[in-house]
């Protein structure tokens, strides 16, 4: 019996990834060949494909999520073209939106991969991805510290302990204020234990943040990073943390073929709804990078106070619109300047008109 080969035949594979197993669908020539479960192993899927469809050309897709990019890298090492897609960008029928199951998800991915309707997201190299993880760790540490501070304040409010006025709204807690907190005595051992434990959590979070920042500054000394950071912090409103956030989230500025592409990634474009021949603008886009957009907007508030050109533009804008809308326009202009200095490895020049 002659062995069957599939030379030059294209097979499209959609994977719905999970911790304990993968749901896999294989398509060829417009037909669904098989949907099955498999251990979460690129090697096992590769072995299955080469055994059942030898000498075929394989294309694989899965959605970005908890498993990260390691399967994509492994498939590429095995010589298989694998892309990762944003779940929100996968076309879905009305039924698929209502009935969401693992087999349906893998079928949908395989189908749309074969149709050519999927757009791969950017996959960073492992070192840049881990640097991004460090930056996001700092973000979470800041969030945890803020929660702990709020818990401490609410505990004191709950027992009628008045916080000194200068510390009520100030987000930065001085050593003096922490010393004052440690001097607070509650009526019971249970209450005192609660306060002391929260203060210990605060001290630990402050130390964790200190160490994370120290490591980030060490990483920023790398030659390929330091030149970018140096250019970025020359832009008004951009300090070290914002510059590192920009670098770790974007990594390669040249992957955006236009400014509009970059603005869309950050989330500084309007949400547009089309009906017939009419387009409706519904405010700023819901889709955005949750780390970058708030930072760019915050930087814009600083920039309008320090950059003459942006100050002038902001004053003109608020004559015709609300301040919150005006600052989004400024943020977009600031992003354009960020892109310019990054691409050209240049320093920002104040009063440069966009």
UniProtKB/TrEMBL annotation:
<dbReference type="GO" id="GO:0006313">
    <property type="term" value="P:DNA transposition"/>
</dbReference>
<dbReference type="InterPro" id="IPR047650">
    <property type="entry name" value="Transpos_IS110"/>
</dbReference>
<dbReference type="GO" id="GO:0003677">
    <property type="term" value="F:DNA binding"/>
</dbReference>
<protein>
    <submittedName>
        <fullName>IS110 family transposase</fullName>
    </submittedName>
</protein>
<feature type="domain" description="Transposase IS110-like N-terminal">
    <location>
        <begin position="13"/>
        <end position="159"/>
    </location>
</feature>
<dbReference type="InterPro" id="IPR002525">
    <property type="entry name" value="Transp_IS110-like_N"/>
</dbReference>
<dbReference type="Pfam" id="PF02371">
    <property type="entry name" value="Transposase_20"/>
</dbReference>
<feature type="coiled-coil region">
    <location>
        <begin position="195"/>
        <end position="226"/>
    </location>
</feature>
<dbReference type="GO" id="GO:0004803">
    <property type="term" value="F:transposase activity"/>
</dbReference>
<dbReference type="InterPro" id="IPR003346">
    <property type="entry name" value="Transposase_20"/>
</dbReference>
<keyword id="KW-0175">Coiled coil</keyword>
<dbReference type="Pfam" id="PF01548">
    <property type="entry name" value="DEDD_Tnp_IS110"/>
</dbReference>
<feature type="domain" description="Transposase IS116/IS110/IS902 C-terminal">
    <location>
        <begin position="232"/>
        <end position="311"/>
    </location>
</feature>
């Amino acid at each position: 019996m002659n062995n069957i080969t599939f030379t030059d035949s294209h097979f499209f594979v959609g994977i719905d990834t999970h911790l304990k197993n993968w749901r896999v669908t294989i398509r060829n020539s417009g037909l669904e060949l098989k949907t099955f479960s498999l251990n979460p192993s690129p090697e096992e899927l590769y072995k299955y494909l080469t055994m059942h469809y030898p000498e075929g050309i394989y294309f694989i897709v899965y959605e970005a999520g908890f498993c990260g990019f390691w399967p994509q890298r492994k498939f590429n090492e095995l010589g298989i073209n694998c892309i990762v897609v944003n779940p929100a960008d996968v076309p879905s029928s009305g039924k698929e939106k209502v009935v969401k199951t693992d087999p349906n998800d893998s079928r949908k991915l395989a189908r749309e991969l074969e149709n050519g309707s999927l757009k791969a997201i950017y996959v960073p190299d492992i070192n840049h991805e881990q640097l991004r993880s460090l930056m996001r760790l700092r973000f979470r540490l800041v969030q945890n510290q803020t929660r702990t501070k709020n818990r401490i304040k609410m505990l004191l409010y709950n027992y009628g302990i008045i916080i000194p006025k200068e510390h009520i709204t100030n987000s930065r807690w001085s050593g003096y204020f922490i010393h004052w907190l440690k001097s607070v005595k509650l009526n019971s051992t249970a209450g005192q234990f609660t306060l002391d434990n929260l203060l210990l959590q605060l001290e630990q979070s402050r130390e964790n943040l200190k160490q994370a920042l120290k490591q980030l500054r060490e990483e920023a000394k790398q030659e390929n990073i330091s030149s970018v950071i140096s250019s970025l912090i020359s832009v008004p409103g951009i300090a070290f943390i914002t510059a590192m956030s920009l670098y770790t989230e974007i990594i390669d500025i040249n992957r955006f073929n236009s400014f509009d592409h970059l603005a869309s990634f950050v989330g500084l474009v309007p949400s547009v709804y089309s009906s017939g021949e009419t387009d409706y603008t519904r405010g700023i886009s819901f889709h955005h990078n949750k780390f970058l957009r708030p930072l760019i907007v915050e930087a814009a508030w600083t920039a309008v106070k320090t950059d003459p050109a942006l100050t002038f533009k902001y004053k003109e804008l608020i004559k015709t619109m609300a301040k919150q809308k005006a600052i989004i326009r400024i943020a977009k202009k600031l992003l354009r300047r960020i892109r310019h200095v990054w691409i050209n490895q240049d320093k920002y020049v104040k009063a440069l008109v966009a």
